[in-house]
Give the backbone structure.
Amino acid sequence: MDDTVVFLLFWLLQSSYKLLNIILRLTFNRCFMFGQTDAGRTRSLKVKIIGRAKSRGASAVHEVPGLDNFIFYFDSQVEDIETEINKPEVSLYGFTTEFAFFSVVSPGQSVWDGVFSTVEQFNKARYLILVPIRDLYKIVETANSTQNKKIFFLQHTDRCGSTLVTAMFKRLPDMQVFSVPESLYSAYYLYHVHCAVSLDQYKNMVRAAVSIHCLTPHKMVFFKLNSVACTSQMNMLYDLFPHSRTVFLSRNSTDVISSMTRIINTHSQSCRLLGWSRDSLVNDGVWATEKHNIPRDIAGILLHNWTACMEALDAAKMPVKAFTYEALVADPKEFAEDILRFFDLPDMHVGDMVKAMEMDSQKGTRVSRSNLKPIKSA
């Protein structure tokens, strides 16, 4: 069955379930989703997932995290939330205006081992933990998790070897790598797309997202961020974490547009006809240009977003080391040595990093080399 049809059927079911819970909440002050609703607004909750679907369709590489993509019921209240979110199977997934929500996978699993963390968080989650925003901020303030961490950010133009560079850094000891953490993307959506939070609230969410991820025992953390949308956060991240270092990876616009078009070709036809594919690209770039000024055609949007990324690089208020895909493939060893030098890290593991070039860094995903469809000629 077409993945878009699956989501529409899920949406009908989820909407009906949500309506039932609203009626129960108003009538009995209790519901299946949140238990006793007064407590649900003031306490951290653990909910059991019984259904999920991607609004972008199964072909989407990542899904904007939101509670509406899940059908769940109340499991229990979480008394010691700080201990709970420090468990390796628990990871910050996204935000609403009221909650930060965490993905909970089976014990022994980690969502950070896969190519894209968002896919792991969405597909493998058995539970969600909903934490009132104010409680999360208290944990961030007391934990001070970023003080003794080396924090590295990878910004990029998309389809430029960023996943390969991420795979290189996964080979370094004592380095925790976060590949496209959706928490920062979720905060972006609340501020830039939904206009549901203020700028100060947005900054607090971004600070909390990085700080919670830094609760890891590793001494160094490497963030590969969402292209375009999170490129808008470059200066904000530096303001919040001035000891961090940022690199920027790009590729020529022609090849980026060609590669992105191949990805869009993997989306279902109905997903494209309904405009979901286009809308996701537009929403990623609304921080740079108002919606009505963004081009109508896909190629035009992709060029607009690529240009916005390059302009953000030019507008960076801190030193940013710029690299290119072309330099990466021309001399991987020199590339690795150069980026390690900028991060002030030893180069003793360069040989192991270069070995990442020997395999498809996106193998097993919908954007692997074997899955991408060729561009149809006119």
